[in-house]
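Last lecture ended with a question: if I hand you only a sequence, what can you say about the shape of the protein? Today we answer it with a concrete record. The protein is Aldose 1-epimerase. Below, first the input exactly as provided, then the predicted structure, then a couple of comments.
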Amino acid sequence: MTTKAFEGTYQGEKAIWLQAGRYEAAVLPEVGANLIAFRDTEKEYRFLREPAMEEMEAFKARPIVHGIPVLFPPNRYEDGKFPWKGKVYEFPINEAKTGNHLHGFVHNIPWAVEKFSADESESRVTLALRVREGHSVYTYLPHEFTIRLTYTLNAHGLHQHVSVHNEGKEAMPCLLAYHTTINAPFAPNSQASDYGFKMTIGNRWEMSERMLPTGEYQPLSADEEKMKVGGLSPFFESMDNHYTTSPQNGRNYMELTDSREGIKLVYDVGTSYKQWMIWNNGASEGFFCPEPQMNLVNAPNVDLPADQIGLVSLEPGEIWEETGRLYTIELNK
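The predicted structure:
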């Protein structure tokens, strides 16, 4: 199997490319370490939504609905306020219609490429975001820490490893998610109607008009119950929904099946992600976002147990880490 890791470009933007057999992937260090492409070159599958050349400026201005953006801290915070250990951090209100802060500070800034390499079985790249006093992120999250992200490509698909290391002297919040943007269809000859999906959802959080959880659950519809077993179109209705995760057989995942191609894309996200967001752009066919998230939306402002809502605290010197994987299963074998 041929493997390569090299510096190149993607639509004119600096990129690190990984190749391993029939798979290739590209990550954009200067745009939030966004894993912008994951492809099967033999079958011409493009699993992630990618920006066209003419969309690059708009993408860089708002790099949320392409590839795998990293959100830290993820999703919405009421009035931009983030209470933490007796202090209240003030985040910019960047969603005018809700009056909230949205999506954190790391998805649209440069990360450092620490290393990239390949051997006979796989290729890999490691990127890091080191936050210290004077860094743009430190302005809002005044802690010294490093987020390190490694992508590895091999015959089994794309593997992701992320860690957050608290290198400061005080406990820090560790809240992370991915706004993963999956193509449906991802095969060139398939239609959206060929696709059904499954997600390991549990309960649905009730949301206010400001898209903030009330702390209560709401009943799942009959269609939402089908999400737990599969076969439901990812565009069955407009979704901007928030759920707890409920791992099945020890795994937390989304599966997207192309019945025409007889192929299943598996997005295994690890059990540290205790919440799912799912957004499908108003049920517009083409792509949807199954978003694994450590924490409940607006978690620091919700009066529920920290372990229940994924409000993770890292003490000085501590490291949080998790893995994920995107891979395919051929159903007709």
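Comments.
1. The radius of gyration is 19 Å.
2. Helices lie at 56-61, 222-227, 306-309.
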